[in-house]
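Figure 3 (text version): structure tokens given as input.
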């Protein structure tokens, strides 16, 4: 049979529970605080599908691109054009389209072997500054909001083509690409290269011409870079840069050496004569040598024996055919 507690026993139990509650209450927030500290927030609208290391490699690539485009545009427009890398961001394609100004100056391009299409967009203010400068304009700031005329499109296309070539050079250390323009759009809402929710990598370059400043943006869909992400690492970038520097150094050395003049002489035969016999030599005398008639002759480059060859004619010029590289140094 169940035991019924008396009133005194009930009061004692309640007193015990009341005395232990503050410790448990104080301990609970600390545990919750530790759990909260270990939780990392994640924004599903802006997923980071490209790692920080890969983003740094893209920053290095396009930092070089900024220098190349600045040099190219300065030569084309005959004035100083400053180009700086602003950012490399991962956003949704819909957000990138909404960030573009209308009417825009946007080019869709293919960059094989990268899959799909990419976008290069010139800020309209910057575009009209380029056009004005190409036609002899000065430092006046232009505030024009209209679509380009056919002639202006041709001028802008020439500038865009130079940017394509510089972009190819910036990628050659990672993946050699070949850029081909596919279309030109003035309304960003008509550009659909990937679904609106797809992740894209947007590279923003700031260009400054006189007092005019604008952005040049390059949009890479994630699907275009996905197959080559393993190459977008710092180590791959360093290795490719070293290899390129070695090739360039070798070519520069070859070009520099090719301009050096050096004396070349051919020894047909060798013999020893007494000084008395040498002084008595006359026209028509025959001098015997120790060299056989079929033996190759020695070709001296500078002061060193370098090749064994056969003398002869090349057309109407005297020449010699190299048969063997002299592989040992004659001891004096």
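Below: residues designed for each position.
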């Amino acid at each position: 049979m169940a035991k019924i507690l008396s009133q005194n026993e009930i009061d004692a139990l309640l007193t015990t529970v009341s005395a232990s509650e503050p410790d448990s209450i104080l301990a609970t927030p600390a545990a919750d605080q530790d759990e909260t500290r270990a939780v990392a927030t994640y924004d599903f609208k802006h997923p980071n599908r490209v790692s920080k290391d890969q983003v740094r490699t893209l920053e290095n690539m396009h930092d070089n691109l900024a220098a190349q485009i600045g040099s190219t545009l300065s030569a084309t427009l005959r004035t100083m054009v400053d180009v700086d890398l602003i950012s490399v961001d991962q956003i949704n394609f819909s957000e990138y389209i909404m960030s573009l100004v209308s009417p825009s100056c946007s080019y869709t391009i293919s960059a094989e072997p990268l899959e799909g299409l990419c976008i290069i967009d010139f800020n309209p203010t910057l575009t009209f500054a380029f056009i004005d400068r190409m036609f002899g304009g000065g430092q006046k700031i232009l505030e024009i909001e209209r679509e380009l005329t056919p002639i202006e499109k041709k001028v802008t296309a020439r500038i865009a083509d130079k940017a394509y070539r510089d972009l190819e050079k910036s990628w050659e250390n990672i993946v050699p690409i070949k850029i081909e323009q596919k279309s030109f759009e003035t309304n960003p809402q008509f550009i659909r290269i990937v679904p609106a929710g797809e992740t894209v990598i947007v590279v923003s370059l700031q260009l400054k011409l006189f007092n005019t400043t604008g952005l040049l943006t390059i949009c890479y869909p994630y699907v275009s870079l996905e197959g080559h992400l393993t190459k977008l690492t710092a180590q791959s970038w360093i290795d490719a840069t070293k290899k390129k520097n070695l090739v360039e150094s070798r070519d520069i050395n070859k070009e520099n050496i090719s301009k050096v003049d050096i004396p070349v002489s051919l020894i047909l035969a060798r013999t020893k004569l007494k000084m008395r016999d040498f002084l008595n030599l006359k026209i028509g005398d025959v001098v015997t040598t120790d060299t056989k008639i079929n033996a190759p002759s020695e070709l001296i480059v500078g002061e060193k024996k370098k090749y064994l060859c056969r003398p002869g004619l090349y057309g109407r010029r005297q020449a010699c055919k190299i048969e063997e590289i002299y592989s040992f140094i004659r001891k004096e």
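The first helix runs from residue 7 to 37.
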